[in-house]
Amino acid sequence: MISRTGYLYETRQTEKEKMKIQTAQYFLLASLTVSLAACEPRESAEARTVETASVPQASKAAAYRFVTSGDANAARYRIREQLVGVDFPNDAVGETKNVTGVISADSKGNVIPAESKFTVDVSNLTSDKDRRDGFVKRRVLETDQYPTVTLVPTKITGLSLPLPKSGSKSFDIIGDLTVRGVTHPTTWKVNANFQPTGFTGKAATAFTFRDFAIDQPRVPVVLSVADTIKLELDFSMIKEAKK
């Protein structure tokens, strides 16, 4: 039989052991919390570094530099499709307003490709059908792996210096378009309206699924999808002041 003194002693020892375990658990939890908190800023900083590095920086060679401004910038695709149960074909149109861009040129008007780039976030392309949007993102563009489409202008034809300060002008932009990791040369037809501080307008190009190694969509609710994809870009560019 255990005496009262022995019982009290064992009870105190058990309570001390419980306190030690609880204290150890508290410090372990606190250490994990501090470690996770310390990791968070580093990840955010890395993300900001990647984002900043993707924006072409100006050099001394850049005599002209125009950047996207305002909320008028947008990109969209148009694909002719024939739906089951519908007598006539229609254009499937998806759009995003997450567009940023810059065009740099030297004193002779030559584009500087290393300092020129348009980036379109295609992860939020939206059309009039949620099912189509999901298919385009998951199966066509694979936006989880390739969230952006980029255009690097390499040459402008039909537009010379000095740039107009008013009126409209049509010209071509030749550039390398990258979709889902595949780069293909493209020519964009541009219609622009000029102002003293910049220009606004629309640009359009077309290509096939094969140009970017993309399988032509085949789904039960769609009888046929045209092989030609049209891309359109609405832009609002302002002249960037030299730093």
Primary descriptors:
Lipocalin; 40% strand; elongated; 2 domains; 8-stranded antiparallel barrel; alpha+beta; 243 residues; 11 strands; single chain; disordered N terminus
Can you describe what's shown?
The protein has 243 residues and is an alpha+beta fold. The protein folds into two domains: 1-53; 62-239, Lipocalin (Beta Barrel). Helices cover 25% and strands 40% of the residues. The chain contains two helices and eleven strands. It has helices at residues 4-53, 130-140; strands at residues 64-68, 74-83, 90-96, 99-105, 117-121, 148-157, 168-179, 182-195, 198-208, 222-225, 228-239. The chain has an eight-stranded antiparallel barrel with strand order 1-4-5-6-7-8-9-11. A hairpin with a 2-residue loop joins β7 (168-179) and β8.
Please summarize what this structure is.
By secondary structure, the protein is α+β, with helices and mostly antiparallel strands. It has helices at residues 4-53, 130-140; strands at 64-68, 74-83, 90-96, 99-105, 117-121, 148-157, 168-179, 182-195, 198-208, 222-225, 228-239.
- Strand % is 35-45%
Give me the count of strands: 11
Give the % helix. 25-40%
Cα-atom radius of gyration: 29 Å
Number of helices: 2
Nearest-integer average pLDDT: 80
- Spatial shape: elongated
The name of the CATH architecture of the largest domain is: Beta Barrel
**Main sheet characteristics:** 8 strands, antiparallel, barrel
Give the spatial strand order of the biggest sheet.
Answer: 1-4-5-6-7-8-9-11
Number of domains: 2
Helix-and-strand structural type: alpha+beta
> Quick one: CATH class of the largest domain?
Mainly Beta
Q: Which series of helices and strands comes N to C?
A: HEEEEEHEEEEEE
